[in-house]
């Protein structure tokens, strides 16, 4: 009888102990699982905030680089600049841009259109003279001068990828918005993308730079693309379809 009583007592104690252990284990599992989910959510949230902050930081840096609406560009190494003749005019550009411009000019010539390169690569020092001295001679404030010429260190011409184009049949339209009425501009507008050139400052461009139908830039290799688009809060202007 005593053994029977002890056996029942033992089973009762074991049952209670088992229940307590089971409850404890369940609670521990829940405790461990819950904070882990919360941590993952917190990490995900933090990553989203960080990504947004990174984008804002990049955009602010691009804005800080701007001077009077013009973005900052490094000067191309002199070793990468070549001089070529196009339709009787000598032009300096990076080799990749020079070859494509020559090809475009040759093809346009077959159609009776003479694309004339007015200006290509300019060093920072050359741009400084053009911006400051010419501006002073014309009694222009920096803001007024910046509407027609970029400040030194902020010109696309420093990159060796930019070229000012004119129509050889209408010299009076050189560096003028009237250039948009020429056959040369219409040719560039329709076919320049085939040669990896694009208009830099279209009407209503994001930088707020004055409309320059004569100013085109080469974007046909990795370096040129990164030069004009990497880290810049600037969207490409859609090209009309033909």
List keywords for this structure.
242 residues; Muramoyl-pentapeptide Carboxypeptidase, domain 2; two-stranded antiparallel sheet; disordered N terminus
Give structural notes.
The protein is an alpha+beta fold and 242 residues long. It has two domains: 1-65; 78-229, 2-Layer Sandwich (Muramoyl-pentapeptide Carboxypeptidase, domain 2), CATH 3.30.1380. The protein is 48% helix and 14% strand. It has helices at 2-65, 95-110, 124-137, 142-146, 183-191, 222-229; strands spanning 81-86, 89-94, 115-119, 162-167, 197-201, 212-218. A four-stranded antiparallel sheet has the order 3-4-6-5. A two-stranded antiparallel sheet has the order 1-2. Mean pLDDT is 79; it is low at 1-17 and 19-62.
Secondary-structure map:
Blueprint: H1 2-65, E1 81-86, E2 89-94, H2 95-110, E3 115-119, H3 124-137, H4 142-146, E4 162-167, H5 183-191, E5 197-201, E6 212-218, H6 222-229
Antiparallel strand pairs: 1-2, 3-4, 4-6, 5-6
Short description:
The protein is α+β, with helices and mostly antiparallel strands and 242 residues long.
């Amino acid at each position: 009888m005593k053994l029977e009583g002890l056996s029942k007592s033992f089973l009762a104690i074991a049952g209670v102990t088992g229940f307590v252990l089971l409850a404890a284990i369940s609670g521990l599992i829940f405790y461990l699982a819950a904070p882990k989910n919360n941590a993952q959510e917190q990490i995900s949230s933090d990553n989203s905030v960080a990504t947004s902050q990174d984008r804002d930081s990049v955009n602010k840096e691009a804005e800080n680089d701007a001077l009077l609406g013009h973005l900052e560009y490094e000067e191309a190494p002199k070793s990468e600049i070549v001089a070529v003749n196009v339709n009787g005019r000598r032009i300096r550009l990076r080799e990749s841009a020079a070859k494509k411009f020559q090809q475009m000019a040759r093809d346009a010539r077959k159609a009776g259109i003479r694309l004339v390169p007015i200006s290509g690569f300019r060093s920072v020092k050359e741009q400084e003279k053009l911006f400051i001295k010419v501006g002073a001679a014309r009694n222009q404030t920096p803001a007024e001068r910046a509407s027609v010429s970029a400040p030194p260190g902020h010109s696309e011409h420093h990159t060796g990828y930019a070229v000012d184009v004119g129509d050889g049949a209408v010299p009076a339209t050189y560096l003028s918005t009237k250039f948009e009425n020429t056959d040369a501009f219409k040719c560039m507008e329709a076919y320049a993308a085939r040669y990896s050139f694009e208009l830099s400052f279209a009407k209503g461009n994001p930088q707020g730079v004055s409309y320059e139908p004569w100013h085109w830039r080469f974007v046909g290799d990795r370096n040129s693309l990164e030069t004009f688009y990497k880290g810049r809060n600037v969207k490409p202007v859609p090209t009309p379809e033909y």
